[in-house]
Amino acid sequence: MYAQKKDSLNSKPTPDSSQLNFVARMQAFAKNASKKSADEFSADKAAISQIKTFEEIKQTMQKAKIYLKGKLDTPGTKVELQEIERDFALAGDGVFTNKGTTQTFRNLTATSKILAELLNKANARKVRLEVRQQELHEFRYQLDSLLSVPALFKFASDSTTLMKYLQKIKVIAYETGPIDTALNVASNNIQALLNQVNMTVFKLESSLEEIDSYQKEMATHTFKREFNNLWEPQGYYRPFGEILNFSKIKGLLTLSFYAENNTGKLIVLLLLMMTSFIYLRSLKHIYIDNKLLKSNFDGQLVLRYPLLSAILLAISFFQFFFISPPFILNVIFWLVSCVCLSIIFNAYVSKYWMRIWLLMVLLFLISAFGNLVLQASRIERWFMLLTSMFAVIAGLTILLKGHREELREKWIIWSIAFMTFLELVSTIANLFGRYNIAKTLFISGFLNVIIAILFLWTIRLINEGLFLAFNVYSGQDRKLFYLNFERVGNRAPALFYILLILGWIVLFGRNFPAFDYLSEPLQNFFSQERTLGNYTFSINNMILFFTIMGISVLISKIVSFFASDKQLSGTDSKHEKRGIGSWLLLVRISILCIGLFLAIAAAGIPIDRITIVLGALGVGIGFGLQTLVNNLVSGLIIAFEKPVNVGDIVDVDGQGGKMKSIGFRSSVISTWDGADLVMPNGDLLNSHLINWSLGGNRKRISILIGVAYDADLEKARTILGEILNNDQRISKSPEPTVQFEQLGNSSIDLRIYFWTKHIGDTSATRSDLIIAIVAAFKTNGISIPFPQQDIYLHHPNATEKPIEE
Fold it and tell me: Taking the complete model, does pTM exceed 0.85, yes or no?
């Protein structure tokens, strides 16, 4: 019984078959529902991705269409390549074609400059084509990647939806087909142009290497014989007319290329000429106004023709900023300088030396013309021989019989002697077939004299300009100008002589083939990159940085000089107008900031290094530069808010004067006692500042006057009104007034109020009015009593009969 009961407890109930069928059906239903839901979610996700992809495809096609319409300048590229090929053919004439018997140094140099410019143009076009090729590849890549998105190939199970989707794909394929074809065509065209450009670049580079080898050979074989002796039968020479024609074409081509690449420098040269002219003209007007100008301009030659002097000085210095200029540009510079100096010389130097100078200029022009002829010919050799022989005879005559006592610059004799020696050597070299060295010495001899005279007189004119400026600007605040005239004396700084001698060596040496190779180690030394920590720099970049900063500081001080100098204002000091001086600090800050930006950009200094410097400067400010920064910031506030301007009449804590300058850290006030009060900008901004100029430079004055009790008061009022109205220094609006104030002990007190038109006239006006009032009152019988007191003695017994003795 117990065993049966135990078995019954351990046994499990058998499930019903109907229940098992229901669970299976529910599980199958859930599985099918889940799968259907996942399929629907995947389909929705694919549809969203498809819509997004189609939109991106349309946008990419639209961008590609716009790009294909606008940026593919295929015809322009072809035209530029044709121009490069044409200029290459012109440049190669006499070097690669029509070579003649030998190469000439000037022809190789001109051809090298032209080919270098053409190579720059070809490389620039190559870079643009490569960029466009890359952009075309990017468009094609974007289209291909969008058309291969996996979501595009997930089709709907519904036949209707599927048909609509396939129709949309068909439209997209129809639209992308022409764009893809156009991109392929454009890419092939760009590649074809790139192949042409690469071939042109390779040809230009190979030609430049060939020219470089010619130049090296010429530099190492300076005295090599190129032709037969001059008296021997000639070989083949190209017709002289053809030589002149292609020399002219090459010269103009090099000049146009160089001018195009150095337009900014030419503009700066013109601005420098204008600035120098304005300064010299102002200086001349000062000497004329003060009757200091001499009729013969002895010691004042720089002021004779300010424009010509400015052109001469500007060209003499600024020509060194043109790196490797073509010879024709140098000829233009030297010819303009010679014309200017000839006009300045006229009737100043003796007739003998004037004729010598004009002869040297003529010989220089003849030799310069010969140097512009780029290929050798028998005609040119005879021309060089006759000219150099004439120069030798002329030089010996000048040296033996010259009027040296009339010569103002004795060093010119040495340059003429050097010219004679060079022309003699040129004659000998030409006779024995050393054409290149003969031509180099031929032009160098005359160029040596011209440059020497131009530079020596440039120093003389600078010397005169500084000395004349010292005479009239000795009272100028030297902190505002760039030279301390007290240290000039009667001689230009020795640095000018050193710079001009170095300049003479550079200009003279450019005519020799070996000059570039001798100067190459020095150029490499300056251009070689050096590493200091993580910073890479070159000496050229450092020099460029400090040069630009120095020029900006110089310009800033020159602007201050012109804005602050009373001599140049041309106005009465009492009634001077506020001009650039009011904005002087802002102008100087702007110039220095622009200079700093250009210096950093030109030197290639990384911005992160500037951030480090600014961080270190911030630490310095936090520790001990608060006062300095306060003054600097106060200077900026004064510059922007302008509570006071240069030239204003001010009172600061009872100290009256006139604002002379507003600097970065401090300002200068010229007091009425003649002293200069230097006040930090922070103190000036925090002081109780009275600015009379903000009110129009006017000031109200009052004068107290006493008249006798028996005076005719209306008559006194009328007389005072006439006196006030007749004085032109008194403003008529508001009108002057006369008021009776009180009955004084000795007089009836009246006070007159009036406004002077300028605060500088107050003291003189008050003084003149007092004189006029006293004289008018005397004339009209109106007395001005002095303070007096009547004493009455009271005697109580005055009525009694006096006691008789």
Answer: no
